[in-house]
């Protein structure tokens, strides 16, 4: 198996003005591409080169001597999932997902507020996720490259809160970026499809 940069599931200018082409060219074309290139380089001629990204994430998590591989594999997985969590056309939350969200958080608006607060409160670089566990849905944040798939949690939706995700468009206003994510950009239909499985 070789690791490749996935195409964006939309045109690079399709999310403007909420997320600009400049941001996506940099984020997908430079940052994500860099994680993939490093992962290829670091696993070359090792048994990990034939594993899936998920397998590498789980096999290297928490191992000090494999931290670099973990970071690049997890960032490759996280970014691939992030592109799937974005949509150019504003979506309503499908009923099956809205029901599960309401059960966990009261209602969709309360969930959105808590998701924005959680992402804004993640100190430094990281990610804010909606995950599905045995007891229903929850919001989790992870620092740097850390990812729910290393912790047996099933992600439904993610927003990247590294500065490179929003600084070009929002400067230091991370809460504004997160609010636009939940109100305009979030791919609720993708999240609902995952929930149904
Ligand atoms: Mn990123």
The CATH homologous superfamily name of the largest domain equals: Iron/manganese superoxide dismutase, C-terminal domain
Approximate shape: globular
CATH class of the largest domain, please?
A: Alpha Beta
As a whole number of angstroms, the C-alpha radius of gyration is 16 Å
The averaged pLDDT comes out at: 96
Strand order of the largest sheet: 2-1-3
Q: What summary fits the major beta sheet?
A: 3 strands, antiparallel
Structural class: mainly alpha
CATH architecture of the largest domain: 3-Layer(bab) Sandwich
Which properties best describe this structure?
8 helices, 12% strand, globular, mainly alpha, single chain, minor pseudopilin epsh fold, 197 residues, binds manganese (III) ion, three-stranded antiparallel sheet, Helix Hairpins
Topology, element by element:
Blueprint: H1 21-43, H2 53-60, H3 67-84, H4 95-105, H5 108-121, E1 126-133, E2 136-143, E3 154-160, H6 167-170, H7 174-185, H8 188-196
Antiparallel strand pairs: 1-2, 1-3
Helix pairs in contact: 1-3, 2-3, 5-7
Manganese (III) ion (MN3) is lined by residues 27, 31, 79, 160, 162, 164-165.
